[in-house]
Amino acid sequence: MHHFAYRGGVLHAEDVSVDAIASKVGTPFYCYSTATLTRHYKVFAEAFANADALVCYSIKANSNLAVLKTLGNLGSGMDVVSEGELRRARAAGVAPEKIVFSGVGKTRDEMAYALSEGIYAFNVESEAELAVLNEVAGQAGVRARVAFRVNPDIDPKTHKKISTGKAEDKFGVPYERARGLYREAAEMAGVTPSGIHMHIGSQITDLKPFSDAFALLRELAGQLKEDGCDLEFINFGGGLGVPYRGNNDIPPHPDEYAAIVLAAAKDLKVKLLFEPGRMIAANAGILVTRVLYTKTGAAQSFTIVDAAMNDLIRPTLYEAWHDIIPVDERLVDTPGQITDVVGPVCETGDYLALARKLPEYSSGDLMAVLTAGAYGAAQSSSYNTRLLIPEVLVKDDQYALIRPRPTYDDLLGRDKVPDWL
């Protein structure tokens, strides 16, 4: 569910006309709904209302400070994968004891900074990383609470580029070696093995991979308790999918997901951690773009818009589908045509949709690319020396510019020409 709907023939974000925002901010831009962010966080958190649980929003999905502050005010913790994301979480006011540090390539400096901030835990992804973290923590005179990220070699039945729990994926330690690694960690002076972590992939719409993975988590938890490990928490990861194709693509409800988690955690007496990102942010955002031109080629019709792959890379990177609707409702029932929606970037891969049946747009028309709140602005770039596009947050009948469009002077000023030139 989201809070983007037609009112008086015009698409609104909550109580604000998208057309009105476009006239003030210019296109393209991202627009996020506070009501949707709030609802999605609450639906997930309330599924575990009767458990000792900490929901750590995965910052990489959408890292805007206003989004993080919105979720932090609701009680969310944060899952971070870099020092920059950790700094964002702290700048948004999230307490360090609600922050978990994930990622396969943490540097010594990042570890030291996270330890100085007093974060809740590190998700350790390799034996080599464990050794470095133990050394860094020892130098700082502290002990790091750690969980090994365990790779169960389970196919999450999602896109290969967002699968993280198969043997060939770069993430985690093999399930078969995990018990021995916990024994090694228990002998170290700078770390305290306190939890287990598992995250098998993203945009998962079938509950069976979760069920299979969580059964292994439960088995490992039992083994660790036999070994005397004082297990404090299990981090079940994230990955629950979202409906990119509207009513034709309905993922499991968080309550169904919770039933599997709670069954796996039964009687273990541990804190439950989660790191949802896409599930909270995706449907809370749209990308608004304006049609520049239409063109009929020898074999294909093209609708050329002012947003491009540098603004939303998901379609070309993941072959991802995003529903696209007109901002002017009158276009909804007009005769459709098969068209590619493409941008100005000088790449054949610059598209938002391929061979899509859409209304016959004209130059100047606005379209909204739905389910764009996750991995949209966060993955954007200034490729082709294009300006990063604005982000807008709506709350009821008001909106705020939460990332302004930079100027060309801002963009060019980032480069430094050496004296000899």
Describe the structure.
This protein has 421 residues and is of the alpha/beta class. It has two domains: 4-31 and 282-412, Lyase, Ornithine Decarboxylase, Chain A, domain 1, CATH 2.40.37.10; 34-281, Alanine racemase (TIM Barrel). It is 29% helix and 25% strand. The strands form three sheets. Strands 4, 14, 15, 16, 17, 18, 19, 20 and 21 form a nine-stranded mixed β-sheet that branches. It has an eight-stranded parallel beta barrel with strand order 5-6-7-8-9-11-12-13, surrounded by five helices.
Summarize this structure as a short list of keywords or feature phrases:
21 strands; 421 residues; Lyase, Ornithine Decarboxylase, Chain A, domain 1; TIM Barrel; alpha/beta; 2 domains
